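Hi there,

I know you've been waiting on this one. I reran it after we fixed the sequence typo, so this is the corrected version. Both the input and the resulting structure follow.
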Amino acid sequence: MNKTRRFILVLAVCSFLLPSLFAQKLPPLPFDHILHYDELTKLLHAWADARPNLVQLESIGTTPEGRAIWFLTLTNGRTGPALEKPALVIDGNMHATEWGGGVAALHFVWRLLEGYGTDERITRLLDTRTIYVLPRMTPEESTLAISTATGELSSSVSATRTGHGSNTPAILASSFLVRPTRQVATTGGCCRKG
């Protein structure tokens, strides 16, 4: 192989490898608490800043209190436009207390961004597909539920106790009532309907 071809080959390989070598460290997703809205916003922006070639962060609207509803588009833009690739849509935390779905969606995003360039399957996925993620559809209600569950309450919302023989809070917010649907049973077993 002549020197010119070898140089072009090395240059081509480096153009794909160097961005991952100089990529910012990806902030981890904390698992010790559910993210408040401001924490979620900061984390999503940090991920977008750390992997601008793989993630686009945008707001698909705002809530009545002015919070952005965040939406992520994950794909390798160098291998083609997002709209021209087969896609998968993931939503998490559609309702105020569905925190598990939101955490799962965020962990999936983190795993894709962290594994790109080192995990062959993830790299192939983001090179050939588009992943759309809506991590939290209801920022106000989720913030209210998180705050109430941790003992922090907004001044505009009143909490009352349910009549189920426990200190489980019921939250009256706007025109809907949010109540836990499961409680720990005190007489053995795992869970019972509340």
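Quick highlight: The chain has two domains: 26-140, 157-193.

Best,
R. S.
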